[in-house]
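Journal club side-thread
Mid-discussion, someone asked how the predicted structure for our own chain would compare to the paper's figures. Pasting it here so we can look after the session.
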Amino acid sequence: MSVQKDLLGKTDSGQNVSVFTLTNRNGMQVQLIEYGAGIIRILVPDKAGMLRDVTVGFDDMDGLQHRSDYQGAIAGPYANRISGGSFVIDGNEYPLVKNEDGIKTLHSGGEYTHTVWQGKEIGENAVCFSYTRADGLNGYPGSIRAEITYTLTEDNALRLHYSCVSDRKTYINPTNHTYFNLNGFGSGDILSQELTIFASTFTPVDKLSIPTGELRPVEGSPFDFRSAKPIGRDIEHSCEQLKNTGGFDHNFCLDGWDGSLRTAAVAKSPESGITLTVSTTLPGIQFYAGNFLSGIPGKDGIPMNKRCGFCLETQYYPDTPHQSSFPSCLFAAGETAESETVFAFRAD
């Protein structure tokens, strides 16, 4: 096991951005960067023992800064959408940045994604990224100290540990926004890759992709992934929910959530033999099928076309500030918002 630190490049403002490369005894390799505290590469052995980069995204600062759709990055301090671009805490309204359609907030305006975090090696198999935001930035209350620790294990698992503490009562809901393609970057679409999500309900959305507040059973609908099926099997179904979002881009409510680490989803490529198992302590997972990728150039200039990658973003449900029936992610001053997510890989 080893960690190597190098200079990736500089931001437009001249800040140095380091890249950390973690390698285990199986040859699995993970590259992490200070910009967005993100993942830019995960090399995993396939069923033939050949390494494939199973992440879709960028490998240079130009792409990360100017063409990003959150590929690989941490989104936060509140990931996903907040309706109306505001919320209320203890009777005080906080207007937020409205960075989607000018009427709602998405991923906190990209704050965590476009920040240079401070990276630090932790032993031979982990890197911790830290960042303290200013109170009121993008409208969010609280100076939040955030730490994201990535640990690579010898059994080909990447563990993400989130720890965030604010000096004011506030909503905290970060996630990692990696796009996966288990056949490897540049290999085409992900429609034949199989997915299981351990959720009996999901949160339907309106035409603005805002949850309606309903927890709808997946049974009998295209949203039933309780048994493995190809991602593309139902993605063009004519139901209203898929029309609203151009394909799958919905939060699934994980069965049996109790705050413990539980399996949330399993994805597999029949072609490469690579399986990804996602576990989390959080109550929800956003399955996004890359509906809005539009050919922007990524690694080695290869275009990222529609549905060339999928996301499994572990989270509290979207728009929780406006949905009292959803699990709450409102944390008191000094209270630690802590969670864990694991991306585990195998090939057979």
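Post-session note: The mean pLDDT is 98.
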